[in-house]
Amino acid sequence: MVKCTNKNAGFTLLELMAVVAIVGIMAAIAAPNFSKMIKNADTRHSAEQFFSMAATAQTKAAKSGRLHFIHVDTANDKIVLFEDTDNNSQLDEDNDTIISQIDLPHNVKMGPADGYQNKALDAPYQFIIPKTPCSFCTTSASKQKGTLAVGPDRELYKVTNDSLSKVEYAYITLVPEDDYDADDPSTRLVVITTIGEVRSWYK
């Protein structure tokens, strides 16, 4: 007995169109969540990089006996750790020793400009000013930069007009671009203190 088979068996055009439509709908639903996941991951990674940079600055300053500087350029989304080889308290890329550099991803910004909390932070962060994304950066529209000096005894100095003023702490907050929510756990805060601590916090 010969068994017959249908060699033309397969999907109909209607079935294929239905599958394509379902895949399209699923992709449209998943895309925003995937985009936010990438932003959050980039923000977390940038905070971890700054955390590591601050700790390195303290260690190298203690070992060398020389000031080490963290230079923040918010206009160009760049943070540079350098040793002030020419002793002018400013970043001169041709003369100073560049130790490391962080180039923030395009979807990560320092901030938030509108404040990341409407109430005081819990201990040990009560000293944080909610609407200040970088405690040692300038607010001038023409010069969005700031420099923090770390000394051999872990003392901290804010660099202003080529002069050093001692501070007890410094911090930077990082958030995903255009995706800020006051209760969003992607907000990252890194704090450097004079007692030799570098702490990372997120809300």
Tell me about this structure:
With 203 residues, this protein is of the alpha+beta class. The chain has one domain (14-202): minor pseudopilin epsh domain (minor pseudopilin epsh fold), CATH 3.55.40. It contains 1 helix and 10 strands, in the order αββββββββββ. It has one helix at 13-64; strands at residues 68-73, 78-83, 97-103, 108-110, 145-150, 156-160, 163-167, 169-176, 188-193, 198-202. The strands form 2 sheets. Strands 3-2-1-5-6-7 form a 6-stranded antiparallel β-sheet, with helices on one face. Strands 4-8-9-10 form a 4-stranded antiparallel β-sheet, covered by helices on one side. β9 and β10 form a beta hairpin. The protein is elongated.
Strand order of the largest sheet: 3-2-1-5-6-7
CATH topology: minor pseudopilin epsh fold
CATH architecture verdict: 3-Layer(bab) Sandwich
Find the structural class using helix and strand composition: alpha+beta
Return the domain count: 1
Series of secondary-structure elements, N-terminal to C-terminal: HEEEEEEEEEE
How large, in whole angstroms, is the Cα Rg?
Answer: 25 Å
Helix content: 25-40%
Outline type: elongated
Mean pLDDT: 76
Strand composition percent: 25-35%
Q: How many H/I helical runs?
A: 1
Parts with pLDDT < 50 across at least 5 consecutive residues: none
Task: Tell me the name of the CATH class.
Answer: Alpha Beta
- Biggest sheet architecture: 6 strands, antiparallel
Number of strands: 10
- CATH superfamily heading: minor pseudopilin epsh domain
Query: In whole angstroms, how far apart are the ends?
Result: 74 Å
